[in-house]
Every structure is written in structure tokens, then in C-alpha cells.
Design brief:
115 residues; mainly alpha; 64% helix
Length: 115
């Protein structure tokens, strides 16, 4: 009987501790005078602004060999398909704009090669 009472007391004590821990966690702690005098600093510094990405350059010289031209056209088409796949994923507006301009650039190069 003593063992049951000891277990019941331990269980009630554990429940009370858990209840009050959650209760005080939800309530905002009162700031002491010392805490209000010192300014609060964020734990993590703000992220530095991302530098603007440089415009992508793509210099393609039209090869005279038809096999080389076909391979280059296929490679450019594969890059365009990769950009299309990336555009299917959720992206930020800036990334979508960058992907769109990259896709347009590769399409223009394919058109210049006569693909």
C-alpha cells in the first residue's frame, strides 16, 4: 500500500510540474528593471543583402560541321528543358525572372544556330 501511495504521489508531482511548466511558458515573463535598462540584441545578425547576379554571357559560334551543330542544338535544348523544370518548382519572383531571361537567351541562341 505504501508503494502505491508513493507512486501516486510521484505521478501527481510530475503532472503538477508539467502543468506549471507549460503554464509559465505560455505567459510572457515579466521583465526586471535591469533587463529593461539594457537593450536587446537579436541572437542572429540580419542576413547581408544578396548581390545582384551578373548577366549571363553565352557566346556560341555557329560550327560548320552539321554533326557539331546538331549536338550543340541538342545541348541548348537540354538546358532549356532544365530551366523549364526549375520553373515548375515554387520560386521567388526574382528567381522566376532570372530563369525566364535565361530561357529566352538560350532560345535566341538556338534560333541563331538555325535549330
Amino acid at each position: 500500500m505504501k508503494e502505491g501511495s508513493a507512486l501516486l504521489t510521484a505521478l501527481l508531482l510530475a503532472v503538477a510540474i508539467a502543468y506549471w511548466s507549460d503554464h509559465y511558458r505560455m505567459v510572457a515573463p515579466m521583465a526586471s528593471e535591469r533587463e529593461t535598462d539594457t537593450p536587446r540584441h537579436p541572437s542572429m545578425p540580419p542576413a547581408p543583402p544578396q548581390p545582384a547576379l551578373a548577366a549571363e554571357r553565352l557566346d556560341v559560334v555557329a560550327p560548320h560541321d552539321p554533326a557539331t551543330r546538331a549536338a550543340l542544338c541538342e545541348e541548348l535544348l537540354e538546358v532549356i528543358r532544365g530551366v523549364d523544370a526549375a520553373m515548375q518548382l515554387p520560386q521567388s519572383p526574382a528567381t522566376i525572372e532570372q530563369l525566364t531571361s535565361r530561357r529566352r537567351l538560350y532560345q535566341e541562341k538556338r534560333a541563331a544556330l538555325g535549330c
